[in-house]
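look at this fold:
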Amino acid sequence: MNTSMTSATARAQTAALATNKVVRNTYMLLSMTLLFSALTAGVSMALKLPHPGLLLTLGGYFGLLFLTAKFRDSALGLAFVFALTGFMGYTLGPILNAYLAMANGGQVVMTAMGATGAIFLGLSGYALTTRRDFSFMGGFLMVGILVAFLAGLGAVFFEMPGLSLAVSSMFVLLMAGLILYETSNIIHGGETNYIMATVTLYVSIFNLFTSLLHLLGFMNSDE
C-alpha cells in the first residue's frame, strides 16, 4: 500500500516537474521570438520594404510552420521557429508603416499593442493561476479559425470591407480563446513540446494584434 502511494506521488512529482519545464521553456522562447519578430519588423519598417503579398505570405507561413512541426524535436526546430517568427515580423513592417502614415496612426498602433499585451497577460495569468481545463474549446476553436480564415480570404478577393471587419472581430475572440486553450493545454500535459506551444501562442498574439490594429484603424478613420 505504502509502496503504491509512494510510486503515485513520485509519478505526480515527475509530471509536475515536466510540466513546469515546458511552461518555463515556452515562455522563454516566446519572449525571444517576440523580440526577434519586433526586430525584423523594425528593419522592414526602416528599409520601407514592400509587403510580400497574400500568396507569398501564406506560402511562407505554412511552409515554415510545416518545417517547424516536422523538426520540433530537434535543434533544427528552433531555427525554423525563428525563421517563422522573423518572416512574420517582416510582413508586419509594411502594415505598421501604413498605419503610422494615418492621422493618429501612432496612437492606433500603441493602443493595439497595449491591448494585445494586456489580453495575453490577463488570459495567460488566469489560466496559470486557476489551472482550469479549457480543453473543451479545442473543437470549437479549430472550426472557428477555419471559418474565419476562409471568410478572410473571401473578404480580400471580393473586396468586402464589412466582412473583413467581421473577420477581425472573430479573430480577436478566437485568438483570446486560443490563448486560454493552449495555456491550459501546457499546464495539464496536453502539449509537451515547448516549440509547438511557442508557435501556437506566437500566432495567437500576432493575429490578435493585427486584428485589433485593423479594428482600431477603422474606428480612427471614421473620426
Observations:
- The chain has one domain: 2-222.
